[in-house]
Amino acid sequence: MTEEKRNRLIAAITVNVILLIVVLAAVCIYQLVTIVTLKSFAKDLQQQIQYYDTEKEKLDHTLDYYKSEEGLFDLAYKYGFVFGK
After folding, report:
1. Angle, vertex CA 75, rays to CA 50 and CA 67, nearest 5
2. Which tens digit of pLDDT belongs to each residue from 20-33?
3. Which of 13, 17, 59, 65 would you call most buried, defined as having the most Cβ atoms within 10 angstroms of its Cβ?
4. ∠ CA 72-74-79 to the nearest 5 degrees?
C-alpha cells in the first residue's frame, strides 16, 4: 500500500466517523426535544384531568342538591310555581 492510498483511506475513515457522529448527535437532539415536548404535553394533560375532576365534583354536588327536596322546591320557585299553604 502506497502512502497516498493510506492517506486517502485515513481521510475517508475520518470523514465517515465525523458523519456518523453528526448523525448520532442529531438523533440524540431530536430524541431530547421529543421527550421534553411529551413531558410538557403530559403535564398539560394532568392539569386538564385535575380541572375536569374538580368540575365533576362541583356538578355532582349540584346534582345531589337538585335531587333533594329543597333543591326541587328552589327550582319550582325559580320557574314560577307557587305552592299554597
Report:
1. 55
2. 999 999 999 999 99
3. 65
4. 95
